[in-house]
Amino acid sequence: MPRSSSIHRKTKETDIELSLCIDGKGNAKVNTGIGFFDHMLTGFAKHGFFDLTCNVQGDLYVDGHHTIEDIGIVLGQAIKEAIGEKEGIIRYGSALLPMDETLVLCALDLSGRPYLVYHVDFTAERVGSLDTELVKEFFYAISYSAGMNLHIKMLDGENNHHIIEAMFKAFAKALDQATKIDTRINGVLSTKGVI
Questions:
Q1: Is 148 in contact with 86 (CB distance < 8 Å)?
Q2: What kind and span of H or E run contains 106?
């Protein structure tokens, strides 16, 4: 059975319906109200071979903060729910992803212990209608709601579009790797017997 989850989260600031299939084909139907962010989530699905649907009504008349952060929370919850007890998964994943002049490293551990290490510098306040400072908020929210140790580091880069896109693709590749099943693993990959 494909590993999947569906979550509906409604607050006074956002209304999010999201479904995720870890064992997908890379299909995405995304509508967040923020065009560039839709592009990033679509790329995440495509390059991670995840099937993702995400429909959002957010208070964008305020700004994009609540929408971006809450999508991160819900996507993190969906990842956590889809992988369940983590039996047989590789657990660790990493990707070194180039995009033109940009090079981004992403490494993660589905450890159950949330932590974000983030070293990225932007030179523009916005890309399209996305505030660049909200990219960190998104990944922070994912790391904490998924229980994921997540490192993202920009090694090279000038174009802010390229930097953000490389981050999302690197995250997708690392997560795809970490969630793969390895038949050599009996139970979970931990000397503690639990992750």
A1: no
A2: strand 102-109
Instruction: Report how far residue 42's alpha carbon sits from residue 127's, in angstroms, rounded to the nearest whole number.
Output: 16
A 10 A CB-CB count for 167 gives 28
Specify the DSSP element, H or E, that contains 131. Answer: strand 130-131
Residue 176, judged by CB atoms within 10 A of its CB (0-12, 13-18, 19+), counts as: buried
Q: Are the C-beta atoms of 77 and 145 separated by less than 8 Å?
A: yes
**CA atoms of 76 and 86, how far apart (whole Å):** 15
- pLDDT tens for 128-164 read 999 999 999 999 999 999 999 999 999 999 999 999 9
Tokens for 190, please give them.
């931990």
DSSP 56: E
pTM of the model: 0.97
CB 39 within 8 A of CB 9: no
For residue 43, what pLDDT is reported?
A: 98
Instruction: Please enumerate in sequence order all residues whose Cβ is within 8 A of that of 32, keeping only pairs 6 or more positions apart, or say none.
Output: 38, 41, 54, 56, 58, 67, 71
